[in-house]
Amino acid sequence: MSDRTNTTLTLHLVSHTHWDREWYLTFEEFRLRLVDLIDHVIDILDSDPQFQHFSLDAQTIVLEDYLEVRPHRRADLERLIRCGRLGVGPWYQLNDSYLVSGESTIRSLLIGSRIARGYGACLAIGYLPDQFGNISQMPQIFRGFGIDNAIVGRGRRITGDRTLEFHWESPDGSRVIASLMAYWYNNAQYLPPDSAAAGAFITELAQRMASRSALNHLLLMNGVDHLEAQPYAGRVTAEVDAAFKASGAGMNIVHSTLEAYVEGLREASADPAIETVRGELREDHAGSCLAGVLSTRTYLKQANAAAQIALEGRAERLAAFAAIDGAPYPTDELRYAWKLLMQNHPHDSICGCSIDQVHREMMPRFERVGQVCAVLESRALDALTGRDRTLGAIAPPCDLLVWNTLNWARTDPVVVTLAFPLGSPARGNAVQEQERILRGIRILSDDGSEVPFGVRSNEIVLDTVLNPHELPLDQWVQQMDIEFVAHNVPPCGYARYRVEAAGRMPEATDGAWPHPLPEDTFLFEDMGEVGDEYLHRAPLRDSRIRQTIDLQRDIAVESTAVRRSVVADAALQIPETSSPAARSARLVSLPVQIQRTEWADVARWEYDIVVDNRARDHRLRALFDCAGPPTAGAPFDAITRPRDAAAIAAGAAPTSPMTLWVDAPYRDAEGGVTLVCPGLYELEYIEGANEAGSAVAITLLRCVGQLSGRGDGPGMPTPDAQCPGAHHFRLAVVRHCAGWQESLAWRQAHQFESPLIGVQVPSVPEAPERRSYLMINDTRLVLSAIKRAEDRDTVIVRFYNTTDEPARHVEVSLPGAERWRAVNLNEEPLEAWNSGDAARVDVRGKQIMTLEFELSRALLLPINPHKGA
Prior knowledge:
Blueprint: E1 9-15, H1 27-47, E2 54-55, H2 61-67, H3 74-82, E3 86-87, H4 102-119, E4 127-128, H5 138-143, E5 149-152, E6 165-169, E7 175-180, H6 195-210, E8 217-222, H7 233-247, E9 251-255, H8 258-265, E10 276-278, H9 298-324, H10 331-342, H11 347-350, H12 356-385, E11 398-404, E12 410-421, E13 440-444, E14 454-467, E15 470-489, E16 493-502, E17 521-528, E18 545-550, E19 555-559, E20 563-575, E21 587-599, E22 605-613, E23 618-626, E24 631-634, E25 637-640, H13 645-649, E26 656-657, E27 661-665, E28 672-676, E29 682-690, E30 693-702, E31 725-736, H14 745-753, E32 757-761, E33 770-772, E34 775-776, E35 781-788, E36 795-801, E37 807-813, E38 817-823, E39 834-835, E40 838-843, E41 848-855
Parallel strand pairs: 1-8, 1-9, 2-3, 4-5, 5-7, 6-10
Antiparallel strand pairs: 6-7, 11-16, 11-32, 12-15, 13-16, 14-15, 16-33, 17-18, 17-23, 19-20, 20-21, 21-22, 22-31, 23-30, 24-25, 24-27, 26-29, 27-28, 28-31, 29-30, 34-37, 35-36, 36-41, 37-40, 38-39, 38-41
Helix pairs in contact: 4-10, 6-7, 9-10, 9-12, 10-12
């Protein structure tokens, strides 16, 4: 603690609201309360000069929500924001950072800060009031936006000689000065209207906080969730300050701003006694990080993961490739999709800890994101390939382009629908020409060799041909769903295959796969659940039920030239429900189907699992054997997740977060096993899980019936959170003979999450057989984004180092670029322009790096030679 002898303590009273957009009320119900709140705040600020400032929770989405109802009040908002009396930004919305991609967190700041500046001013505050834990890379992300501070609410305890202030450091070494709201973001919520009572209240609060502070500045937060401003706060603050001065109390209090407090907080940055905390803030003492939200309503997390890949992994990247070829970049459409997606990212939304109606309304938003992305992806592929879908289906011979949006060459399965015309498009009574039906096709690679493939379906269908200048037309087509393995598809580019008519189709091999069925079992564990949407709790007398499904016995086998799948059907017999005392004696049957798929020359097993949930109040997990603590993917990071017995004894959850993949030493061999689990975010390392050793448990379902049972929120019933009905999970398992870093474990994870894209196009003999739009020559680096810059016509490339080891002399090349420079996450330049199309940079371990390329249109090489640059 600092020595405050002969110093004055400055108390910063910040009037604010914490705005959960949807939670125990729906979005529209809360929106109307928001309209009232902002109306009243404007009136207070305009009528009372002593009420200096009001903070709108560092968000900007609230401005859009308000102006949809009060569009005529934009000028009032701009006036108050510009003069610093209404604080907004830098966030678009306060997302949970564990359950969304790292790129989504960046976009919330990228879009939110620009919206705020458009209204006149943006707070430069790293405000994290109520995230349920904070990711390790947040200091680096803040620094990338010129933010040198963080104000946090969860993830760290005040214990021992810790102070409220600390240095927070990311794994790459980026650091911010941080302040913990240990007395919460409502420590001055109930400011009495009487100045004498308010003075006594503030004095007692300041004394408690000062005993834990290293500074002469303290943050008093006057507000809480959804509450309106106290109109008298400015007057009372001034009266209390006058009383402090008159009494020589050694304190002054100001009706202040977060930025003014941070100016004082920066004084701590030079104090050598201030502790440095490296990595994530996730101290979960007594369940304070509400860790159960990692597995609440897993269907929401799965839908979000799919929408993120559709947007940031496909539509945006393909649009950038097309822009490099000279096509217009859909800036507005992509920003709309991002904002729509981020409406589902606030912590009470994506965490699944709201009333049922809130989450029912989220699913159509995810679907709308998918619809927008599908259109943008198709338009980008049209521009890239010269395909004209208004002409209808494409007859053979034709080309099949296989697109890879990841930044390394890969060998992976392609599943694509081909459509061959059986007549011309027409409006009504389309003609079906039977003589055009193909007996078969063959696929040729760029070296002329025939490519093995399988046929999933082959049927005659009536297709719809759309044209912006015509009403919809009908066309009979022969539609084939085929599968094959594309080898060594270039990074951020494509490989070209040729499709020709043939005398027959390949025949199914009916189990004649060249390798015998491997030994493989799948282990489920089910246990009781009497917690709520925030926290897992087991019944007092719980019963854990484990059931192994043998994928060598009682199975159906389906094989093609490139794939072998085995299907096992089973039923889990589990208690129908649970009570706080015990699980019920009555059992129900949960039908389960598992399909395990192997692809030729692809180093992973893929599992499709369908569970028909007919029970309540239970938790279902998949268990995988291992021989030591796992390392799990995280946003822009990978973190080892051992079992912390001491923390668990103090009330912390035994579970940990994961993003996409987890890797662990394998129990009976050198090397390890990587588990790939898109849309699933909760793991537990269980020591001595069975006779063979330890295990990693991945939560599939956590079924509860109440929003909150201990006061973390209202105790409302949430029957939909029991997750009844069918649920589909996609997992993959990869065995490797080295550690996770040496084996590049994350690569198969990203490949499984982001399948290759096949598109049928007319043949263009002059076009390159293979092409990359972007190349990064270091195996440790993972592409996060390639996009148009927010504010200028250049290309932004963002990637990160997954490992702790620095990557030296990395070459990042974008053919067709004239010059390049490093920029920060906010796309502000860090250096002067460098000439050439290849950047040469050093990347620190765990660093997120962003480069900007300016194109030379004269150097562009379109795939379609008839399309102008």
